[in-house]
Amino acid sequence: MHPKVDSVRDQAVDLMTNRGDHCRKVIEPKLSELNQRFAAISQRIKSGKPFIPLKELEQFDFDIQKLLEPLEVEIQQGVNLKEEDFNKDMSEDDESTVKELLQRGDTLQKRITDERKREEIKIKQQLLQTKHNALKDLRSQRRKKALEISHQWYQYKRQADDLMTWLDDIEKKLASLPDHKDEQKLKEIDGELEKKKEDLNAVHRQAERLSKDGAAKAVEPTLIQLSKRWRDFESKFAQFRRLNYAEIQTVHEDTTFVMTESMTVETTYVPSTYLAEILQLLQALSEVEERLNSPVLQVKDYEDLLRQEECLKNIKDRLGRLQGHIDIIHSKKIPALQSATPREAANIQDKLTQLNFQWEKVNKMYRDRQARFDKSFEKWRLFHCDMKSFNHWLTETEEKLSRAQIEAGDVGHAKTNQFLQELQDGIGRQQAVVKTLNVTGEEIIEQSSTADANVLKEQLGSLNTRWQEICKQLVEKKKRIEEEKNILSEFQEDLNKLILWLEETESIIAIPLEPGNEDQLRDCLGKVKLRVEELLPHKGILKRLNESGGIVLGSASLDPDRKHKLESTLKEANHRLVKVSKDLPEKQKEIEILLRDFTEFDQQLNQLTLWVTPVKNQLELYNQVGQPGAFDIKETEAAVQAKQPNVEEVLSKGCHLYKEKPATHPVKKKLEDLNADWKAINHLIQQLKEKPALGAPGLFSPVTSGQTVAVDTQTRVTKETTTFKPEMPSSVLLEIPALADFNKAWAELTDWLSRLDREIKSQRVTVGDLDDISDMIIKQKAILQDLEQRRPQLDELITAAQNLKNKTSNQEARTIITDRIEKIQSQWDEVHGHLQSRRQQLHEMSKDSTQWLEAKQEAEQVLEQAKKKLESWKEISYTVEALKKQNTELKQFSKEIRQWQINVDVVNDMALKLLRDYSADDTSKVELMTDNINTTWATINKRVSEREAALESALLMLQVFYLDLEKFLAWLTEAETTANVLQDATHKEKILEDAKTVRELMKQWQELQAEIDTHTDIFHNLDENGQKILRSLEGSEDAVLLQRRLDNMNFRWSELRKKSLNIRSHLEASTDQWKRLHLSLQELLAWLQLKEDELKQQAPIGGDLPTVQKQNDVHRTFKRELKTKEPVIMSALETVRIFLAEQPVEGLEKLYPEPRELSPEERAQNVTKLLQRQADEVKTEWDKLNLHSADWQKKIDDALERLQGLQEAMDELDLKLRQAEVFKGSWQPVGDLLIDSLQDHLEKVKVYRAEIVPLKEKVHQVNELARRFTPADIQLSPYNLSCVEDLNTRWKVLQVAIDERIRQLHEAHRDFGPTSQHFLTTSVQGPWERAISPNKVPYYINHETQTTCWDHPKMTELYQSLADLNNVRFSAYRTAMKLRRLQKALCLDLLSLSAACDALDQHNLKQNDQPMDILQIINCLTTIYDRLEQEHNNLVNVPLCVDMCLNWLLNVYDTGRTGRIRVLSFKTGVVSLCKAHLEDKYRYLFKQVASSTGFCDQRRLGLLLHDSIQIPRQLGEVASFGGSNIEPSVRSCFQFANNKPEIEAALFLDWMRLEPQSMVWLPVLHRVAAAETAKHQAKCNICKECPIIGFRYRSLKHFNYDICQSCFFSGRVAKGHKMHYPMVEYCTPTTSGEDVRDFAKVLKNKFRTKRYFAKHPRMGYLPVQTVLEGDNMETPVTLINFWPVDSAPASSPQLSHDDTHSRIEHYASRLAEMENSNGSYLNDSISPNESIDDEHLLIQHYCQSLNQESPLSQPRSPAQILISLESEERGELERILADLEEENRNLQAEYDRLKQQHDHKGLSPLPSPPEMMPVSPQSPRDAELIAEAKLLRQHKGRLEARMQILEDHNKQLESQLHRLRQLLEQPQADAKVNGTTLSSPSTSLQRSDSSQPMLLRVVGSQTSETMGEDDLLSPPQDTSTGLEEVMEQLNNSFPSSRGHNVGSLFHMADDLGRAMETLVTVMTDDKVLE
Q1: Is the predicted pLDDT of residue 1801 greater than 60, yes or no?
Q2: Cα–Cα distance, 223 to 228 (Å, whole number)
Q3: What's the predicted TM-score (pTM) here?
Q4: Burial level of 1729, CB count in 10 A (0-12/13-18/19+)?
Q5: Within 10 Å of residue 481's Cβ, how many Cβ atoms?
Q6: Which end of the chain is more exposed for a tag (fewer CB within 10 A), N or C?
């Protein structure tokens, strides 16, 4: 500071000396003031006098002392509790005071300069802080202790308050007593006093316990006050107690309990008194007993132990006192008895006995209760001791664990293990303690009060939690140590592997190379390349080791020696890997150079060898001719000379290569041959040159010419090809014609190989493009396959050449052939080698490109991170702290940049390798991407450098700014002084008259102005930098100070410029001052006009951000110029104003209308007007220019903001689009995707489409922002417009690409996806094609016949083959055999039930009512057959089986091809034909329809049977199994179960074992399958087959009579054997037992007659009542007889309405047959027994059909049947007739109405119904009416005929009643199903043919048959039963006919009438349509 003051003083002295008196007057006072102030400041600094008043320091000391005193007092209290600790929250009341004092101390320290005082303040602050912290800890401890004993404290406080309240009340009560004192009230008060004394003692005990716990000071005030009050009251009441003691004692029993021990009982010898004393003692003992039984002692063992203890102690005291009284009583016993009367003595004796007993009893009770208390108390005490010691152990252990956690890195391995071992031992010892504590604690908690139990539970829970935490920490520590050991071992292992790899790599690098050994070089190169490929992964391994090394080496469990060893090994590995990373590429490069040199050498050697040999042969030929000069060898010699350098170079190179080590055999031989041939050539040329030129030169010209051509050809051989084609001499071709074909084939193959070689060499790939490389590898593979396919052609050529050589003896031809074969073989091998090497090169290129792409991706990630870091940089702040922070961040980023440099270097190295190794291919992609990466990296580095420079510049600017500011202000002070001096000089009087002085002053002013101009830039820089620093310091005190200094600088600068202008104005003033002003104003106007033009030229606003920013910079300069010019203009205007003010104002507004000579006054007025006008113009123009400048700046700012928004939106959108395009670029072609992954790719693209939806909003935002820039406002630049257009285009292209991708994936997924049927297309062969309908159902197209069908061609063939089985007579076997063939064709005979269930469960097919579509069926079938294919690979063709099975399922369950079947249907079809036990199938199928409880109702069973019957129905066999209506079967099953509402599985299985008619085909199928491989050692008696294969049928009528299945099924019989004879069937070989049993049966049947067999028919199945279904596919329709069994259905099934019309037609034909037969139901050909049986059956069935009741309720006698029929049928017939007549009348009325309508319309009248004739086609309406009437008449006639039939039938029934009565009385068992004879595991009955009851019995395997051929032979039987069946079926066809009277014929006729009406309508409509 002192130098600055001295400098100012020197300047002031200089100015006062040189600038005159005026300057002295101005400067001298200021200088004096400066000296005074500087001296004062210096004195104050020297004296060290503080600026702070002493009063403030004293106040601070006082406040601190005042606060320290209470703190010290409270600290002295320690942890002793006071009442305040319980009554208030321990909040820090003085926290704010302490904080405020500390802040005041900090402020004072900053302001005080005296070091000693500052130190004192600091010490006081530390003392205050220390005391305050100590107090906070004490308060925390007190609070914790207070919380622990708060329960006891509040209990104590409550008891004390209650006692105080009672004392207040009792004192009032005592004071209110009357003067004479009521004795009774005194006794009550005394009793209350004695009771409350116990409470007082309890309070004292509670206070004592609280005092022990540290709350003595808290309880002391209350206890003192309570004791004082109690003593006061006792002193007041003492006199009353003395006066009335005896009475009080007798009144209340507690007197002796609470009074002092000085109390005595006076015992007298008077008997009455003695007896009263005994009674008094008995009363006292009773009271003690009551006390022992009081609630205080009758609590839980651990509840309120203190009260128990106090109570027991009082009881003990009282018993002690009573002991003395009792002793006295006993001592006075004898005197009292002596003085007593006998009666009194007896009484005394009784009372004494009672007293003794009571005394012993009370003592015993007390001892027992005391013992119980002592036991509980001891247990309580031990429990708390254990808990306390355990708590102490836990605390110590937790501290040790915490300390061990802190010192984890500082202690050694041994200490850690020791600590863990100690901890483990401690835990082991404490296990028993914890267990005991918990057990005892639970017992105590159960026997404690609720409050105590809760506290104890909380304490135990806390201890257990801490214990578990310690155990957990121990386990974690052990686990962590084990993990560290594992990590260490893994680290050691990885490090050892890396070291081993480095050693192997170094050994490979050290291998000495042999330049001439190609094999060794290639072997070394392969090893080196392998190591180079492994280099990058091992770098990653080392990087990982370095990262994990810090963790491993910092482990506490690691020994120091081992740690040091690992560190040194890791460092060594780093060093060696760096060396290897450098040496390996160099080694690879060296080997490649040597290989390339060797390859070139070998090629040259081969070329020269190929060239030398023919030349040598040619020269030898010339030399052999023997005629000197016959050949011209000049050309040959020239060629030899031209080749000489090459040959010598090759020979010398070979000598150099193999100087140290001999050459390998082939190379050595080539070199020797070349050397020898070369020498021979030179020798031959020399010989030929030496021979004289003789003979005719053209003698051998042809030969010479031909040979020369050959030589020339050889000289033109280049590196591209080593083949040549020597011409074959024509003589040789003539001699051997086959040579021409050989030459042609050789030439073609040679040309093909040449083209192939050129093609291989011309194929270039894009290096780095994996797809392109993969395509090229595929092409190379195809070429190689093509080459291998041509190999036979080469072999044939070689064979042909060998044959030609054998055929010809021409040596020349043989030589040429050999040469050509060798050449083509060489060429073949060369091309093959090129292919192999190229393929290998492509594989290496793919590997290298993959590594490069991975490295590039990592580098790009690094670049993205760097870019984000750059974008996150904030604007440079101009504060020291901010700059340091930003500089630190920059250094950290630079460090990361250096680390990331490795990634970029790796990419560059790999790129260089690709460019170097594959330079022959297209490397543009690698070059482009590498350039992009390097450019981006360079940009990042440049930005970092620029940022670093900017930060350094900012820091430097910040450092020099204040210095520059001080310098500038110092100069400003000097300039102001100079300006002041000049201004004073110019204002002196008459100074302007002295021209010399004026010039001198003008010169000084010019110097001042020059300095001002020089410092203008400095001023602007300081102002600009100051504003930057101000923005950084915004809101701080420094900012206010700096703002003040800058404002001061700007003000002084402005004033200085004004002073300068004023000085100039004064110096330039003269008499013509107005001219100067006029010129000055004109200059200003011109300048303003110039600036206005400049401002206009800046328009319009640019269309992009750089342009607008440039405009902003230009305008900033423009505004600076305006700011600089502002003082000049303001000064000029001020000067004009002053000038005008000094001029006279008279006449200024006077106008001179005519011109005349102006006076001086008038001229002055004109000058004034001129100057005023110019000044106004300047002012106007200046304001306008400022306004325009502000408007322009506003436009620029607005444009900048909008363009920045647009640019940011465009950049963000561009980034998002680039990311989207990268994702799009990663898409593989749809054709290359795996079929299974199509769905995943589709989902990914859909998800991605959803993710880019926000981009649409961003595109819209960019477009909206761009649209806001209108041409009238701001015209966007072409660049911005193109960017917006490009973004829109890219967005549209992206959308189109995504939509197209989704479409392609959808199509691919549809055609080839997992849910498609694409894989099933292979199930058919040409000309068939598999197609799919819109509902996914397949159909098949035959392109030959141009037809389509639903069935698979193989399925059609299968159905055709099933026709071969139609000759099987029995339908059950026929159906079973067809199903067996179908089962095998579908491969379902290989499918186990468990596998089928697994597949069904896998596809979650559990809802049986749910429909399955085609895809679900295919998926499930595919799963089934895939598994079968794995188990039976050669037997299952999955596509064919899936398609066939699907075809069969649709044929069975979806004949309409809707594309859906139910899950139950699918399961039924598959399980029925799978391989499983029959009962397992039954159980599974029943389970599918059973409810969750395992029961099945009729509806569910009907569903199962319906799906099952569809299987034979599809084969056309349903009529044989009861038809497709399953209701009779359902009723049969439930009647078998005694008509239960639901059946269980066992009942269902029992019923199925009877083989019901509708399901008999399934067990037969199983027997057919079982019998296929059965071999029976017997001979067929018909066809003589032996052994019998399949079923064996043994007669039970004849001995040793067997039939094979073929004969049996076809119905063939032998002589003497009838088909109705009983037989037994075997599907397995018979056993001896079965043979004996059958023999016995045959013997028995020998004695039975035919009548017996007719009377005892056997059925092998359970028949059910059926409804006629229609014709069979194989057999004619026959009506099925009903068998009379108890389980027969009670009613017939309902038929669907759709079947009604077809059945009506059938019934009509039956009625016609009945009319023709004229009621004859019996045929003579039928035996009487059979007729009787049939009639019996018909009548019983008819009765059942007429009534829905069960068969048990049917009439049992014919008389009842007849009465029922007559009474019901006749009434119904009468009603039918009446209804028909009514219907006829209605029809007639309807006819009349229609006729009237017809006539009304003007049509020709209709004839009356009887006269109706067929009409012409011209009246279709008439024809329709006629036809309708005719049909109605026919309907009426049929009904009448039917009634006649019924009447006749009734007559027949009457004639047979006596026979029916006999039949009904026969045993019912004759009509039931007979039992079965078992001979194999599965047996059942076989029914006989309906016409031959004794046809067949069943033994052995199950069999069932419904109808046989004999059905065809009994039409009379059909006729006799036809009417009944028709009636039954009619009754069943119409559900509405089932009323209360089921057999109502009226309802039947009514329904039939309605059906006929419908039929008439349909037939009429059909005719109309025709």
Answers
A1: no
A2: 9
A3: 0.35
A4: exposed
A5: 17
A6: C
- Nearest-CA neighbor of 253 among 331, 321, 163? 321
Spatial distance between the Cα atoms of 1258 and 1264, rounded to a whole number of angstroms: 10
Structure tokens, 156? 């104590």
Q: Tokens 């799978």: give the residue.
A: 1474
Q: What is the dihedral of CA 337, 340, 344, 350, to 10 degrees?
A: 0
Instruction: Return d(Cα 1072, Cα 85) in angstroms, integer.
Output: 98
Nearest partner of 1915 among 1671, 1762, 1718, 1723, judged by Cα: 1723
8 Å CB contact between 1233 and 1241 = yes
- Please give the residue that has the higher pLDDT: either 1680 or 1019: 1019
* Alpha-helical segments (H) within 1226-1277: 1238-1251, 1253-1267
8 A C-beta contact, residue 812 and residue 753 = no
Distance CA 1524, CA 1558 (A): 9
Selected residue with higher pLDDT from 494 and 177:
494
DSSP assigned state of 1809: G
| Cα separation, 674 vs 809, whole angstroms | 30
**Mean of the pLDDT values across residues 1834-1863?**
65
Residue 599: CB partners within 8 Å, gap ≥ 6? 518
Give the integer Cα–Cα distance in Å for 85 and 87.
6
- Let me know: does 612 contact 677? Beta carbons within 8 Å: yes
d(CA 525, CA 519): 10
Kindly report the average pLDDT of the chain as a whole number. 75
Q: Determine the Cα–Cα distance for residues 1130 and 1135; give it in Å rounded to an integer.
A: 9
Instruction: Summarize pLDDT for 912-945 with one digit per residue, the tens.
Output: 888 888 888 888 788 888 888 888 888 888 888 8
Residues with Cβ within 8 Å of residue 1444, at least 6 apart in sequence: 1323, 1352, 1354, 1355, 1358, 1385, 1386
The whole-angstrom separation of Cα 146 and Cα 153 is 8
**C-alpha span between 1823 and 1821 (Å, rounded):** 5
Phi, psi at 1676, each rounded to 5°: -65, 160
**Structural element, H or E, at residue 1626:** strand 1623-1626
**Digit-coded pLDDT (tens) for 1876-1905:** 333 333 333 333 333 333 333 333 333 333
Mean pLDDT of 206-224: 81
| Segment 709-759, tens digit of pLDDT | 333 333 333 333 333 344 555 455 555 667 777 887 888 888 888 888 887
Sequential DSSP letters for 557-599:
TS-HHHHHHHHHHHHHHHHHHHHHHHHHHHHHHHHHHHHHHHH
Contacts of 502 (CB under 8 A, 6+ apart): 573, 576, 577, 580
List pLDDT tens digits, range 1271-1323.
777 888 888 888 999 999 999 998 899 998 888 888 887 767 666 777 788 88
Q: Rounded to whole angstroms, what are the CA distances from 42 to 4, 660, 738, 1479?
A: 14, 95, 130, 123
DSSP annotation string for 1206-1220: HHHHHHHHHHHHHHH
Contact 1926, 1756 (CB under 8 A): no
What phi and psi, each to the nearest 5 degrees, are found at residue 1635? -65, -45
pLDDT at 1375: 93
Determine the 3-state secondary structure of 1457 from DSSP. Answer: coil
Tell me if residue 1588 falls in helix, strand or coil.
strand
3-state secondary structure 468-480: HHHHHHHHHHHHH
Distance CA 1864, CA 1868 (A): 8
Separation between Cα atoms, residue 1642 and residue 579, nearest integer Å: 105
Distance between CA atoms of residues 1115 and 1190, nearest Å: 10
CA dihedral 1045, 1048, 1050, 1056 (to 10 degrees): -140
In which element (H, E) is residue 1329 found? strand 1328-1332
